[in-house]
Structures are given as structure tokens and as C-alpha cells.
Write a structure and sequence with these properties.
alpha/beta; single chain; Rossmann fold; 6-stranded mixed beta sheet; about 140 residues; globular
Length: about 140
């Protein structure tokens, strides 16, 4: 995937686990995405408030040890406290789910998705689809 420098999608990644965060950043950057990483809600809000000139095109958040409702509330607070548009596509990486859901994804609303990973390639494919949609709008 090749973009001019102005069209390179920027992804805000919320991931608490250091090793997972490092691997996701590395793999997303290898796929030509700009990645902003935060360890939690407060870190994401602080970064976005202090860097108003950079706005992510996509939000990826790991649901680790949270209910889906809690995860959606975090996304809403980030939107409200930073002026981030709620129209920005968001991917929630589910942490615990039944084997029947593995390898699937669901659309929660117009711009929110939950993904039940079978492998990382599934996440990267959804990121690519959403970023393609961003660049064609």
C-alpha cells in the first residue's frame, strides 16, 4: 500500500501490554502506517491534547480486561476530551471470546468494529479496508 506523505493514514493505538504494543507498532509501520501509541486512556488524551496538529484517521484499542461497554466509554471520553471526531473508524480488539467467534468481526455501529482475532493478519486486513475507505472519501 503506497500513499503520498499527506495521505499516509495515522493510527492511534491503545495497548497496555508493552510487548504486544511493540509488535503492533512494528507491524503497522512495516505496512506504511503512521502509528501513535498510548498505554491507556489518560496517555491517549494527554498526547492528543498536546498535539492538536496531528489527528488520527483510525483508532485501534485492545479490550484487555474491560467489558465492551467500558471500552466504548473510553472511546467516547477520548472523543469528548480531545475533540476527536466520533466518525473516526475504531477497531476494538476483543480479548476473551468463545472459539465460535474466532476469526470473525462485527460492526457495532457506523464507525465502530470489534474483531475476534484468529491471527494478526485479520487485524491488518481490517485496518487496510478501513484506511482504503478513509482515502477514498
Amino acid at each position: 500500500m503506497s500513499y503520498s506523505s499527506e495521505r499516509i493514514p495515522t493510527i492511534l493505538l491503545l495497548e497496555k501490554d508493552d510487548e504486544t504494543r511493540r509488535l503492533l507498532i512494528e507491524n503497522l509501520r512495516d505496512r506504511n502506517y503512521r502509528v501513535l501509541a498510548a498505554i491507556d486512556e489518560e496517555n491517549a488524551i494527554e498526547w492528543l491534547v498536546n498535539n492538536q496538529e496531528i489527528r488520527p484517521n483510525l483508532l485501534v484499542i485492545n479490550q484487555a480486561k474491560m467489558s465492551l461497554e467500558d471500552c466504548l466509554k473510553i472511546i467516547q471520553r477520548i472523543d469528548e476530551k480531545t475533540g476527536l471526531s466520533p466518525k473516526i473508524p475504531t477497531i476494538i480488539i476483543a480479548e476473551q471470546y468463545s472459539p465460535a467467534l474466532e476469526g470473525t468481526e462485527a460492526r457495532i455501529d457506523d464507525n465502530r468494529y470489534i474483531i475476534y482475532l484468529e491471527d494478526a493478519q485479520q487485524l491488518f486486513a481490517l485496518v487496510a479496508r478501513l484506511c482504503l475507505r478513509i482515502n477514498t472519501n
